[in-house]
């Protein structure tokens, strides 16, 4: 068994493995070459620092890695672990993850992050064996068409559009969210700020998807209310959600990306409006440089 760098492979071979590994997965993660290249670009994945397992000249597994420096700390993200079904149970995943951890140390990574499907106990056990621990649960929620009930809106709040860079000024803006929900991962990100008594009391980050010139989807990446507004948190959250998801038509698909389940005001408001959980994930981390082990609160594994 050889462990190679992803940059030594051809895209078509890697894509074929990815699609075969995820063809019977918990959710459809198969893609064409264009989408695969977009994933690599949008999520800041490094081919040079991603790894692949080769057995008897056949590509049988891979791990995609991304890196970001945030507020002086280096973060690494496992953007997908894929192993062909017939090669699972041969400790290939363990060898790939160890190769990644070695790369993280070479790059002076402080914290390694990943997400795993809650039901994928085999992958979670592997990550735990390699030193990862779960620190939060995440959910993808989905709704198709008009909402069962509109989000109640309070006249005490107003929402205004903003630029992503304005979020850096907010004391309650957390840059270290799930990798795909971080601003650098979101192409054409839209931001809306919630104002209460002339102060910014919340924000949402989302994106519109168009098909044939018509709005076909809305992706919600972050929706946060200031801790100072706890007494009216749900009202504030509903006002933000109304700004993001209204108006929508019968053909519009609405999805939340890796919403922390502990964000109860947002989560409960979405469920009440008719959204349903389609995928649950655990968010896991591992301290690489022990001196920077503290982290303020990635992707999938076909193992």
Can you put this structure into words, describing what you see?
- InterPro entries: Acyl_CoA_acyltransferase, GNAT_dom, MshD_Acetyltransferase.
- By secondary structure, this protein is α+β, with helices and mostly antiparallel strands.
- It is built from six helices and 13 strands.
- The protein has helices spanning 11-21, 33-42, 92-106, 121-129, 233-245, 264-272, and strands spanning 2-5, 45-55, 58-70, 73-83, 111-117, 133-144, 157-162, 190-196, 199-211, 214-225, 253-260, 276-287, 301-302.
- Strands 1, 2, 3, 4, 5, 6, 7, 8, 9, 10, 11, 12 and 13 form a 13-stranded mixed beta sheet that branches.
- The longest helix is centred in the N-terminal third of the chain and has 15 residues, at 92-106.
- It is globular and about 65 Å long.
- It starts with a strand and ends with a strand.
- The relative contact order is 0.18.
């Amino acid at each position: 068994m050889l462990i190679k760098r992803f940059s030594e492979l051809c895209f078509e071979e890697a894509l074929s493995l990815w699609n075969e590994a995820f063809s019977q997965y918990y959710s459809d993660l198969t893609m064409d070459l264009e989408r695969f290249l977009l994933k690599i670009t949008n999520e800041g994945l490094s081919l040079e620092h991603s790894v692949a397992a080769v057995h008897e000249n056949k590509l049988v597994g891979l791990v995609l890695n991304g890196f970001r420096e945030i507020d002086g700390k280096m973060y690494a993200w496992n953007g997908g672990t894929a192993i062909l079904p017939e090669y699972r149970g041969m400790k290939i995943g363990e060898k790939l993850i160890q190769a990644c951890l070695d790369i993280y140390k070479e790059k002076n990574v402080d914290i390694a992050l990943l997400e795993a499907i809650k039901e994928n106990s085999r992958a979670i056990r592997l990550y735990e064996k390699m030193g990862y621990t779960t620190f939060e649960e995440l959910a993808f929620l989905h709704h198709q068409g008009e909402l069962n009930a509109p989000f109640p809106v309070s006249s005490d709040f107003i929402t205004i559009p903003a630029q992503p860079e304005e979020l850096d000024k907010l004391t309650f803006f957390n840059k270290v969210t799930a990798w795909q929900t971080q601003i650098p991962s979101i192409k054409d990100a839209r931001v809306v700020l919630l104002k209460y008594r002339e102060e910014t009391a919340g924000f949402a980050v989302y994106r519109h998807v168009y098909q044939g010139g018509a709005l076909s989807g809305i992706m919600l990446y972050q929706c946060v209310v200031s801790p100072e507004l706890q007494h009216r948190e749900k009202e504030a959250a509903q006002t933000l959600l109304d700004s993001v998801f209204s108006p929508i038509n019968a053909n519009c698909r609405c999805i939340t990306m890796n919403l922390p389940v502990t964000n109860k005001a947002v989560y409960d408001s979405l469920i009440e409006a008719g959204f349903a959980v389609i995928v649950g994930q655990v968010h896991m981390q591992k301290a690489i440089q022990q001196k920077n082990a503290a982290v303020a609160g990635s992707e999938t594994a076909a193992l």
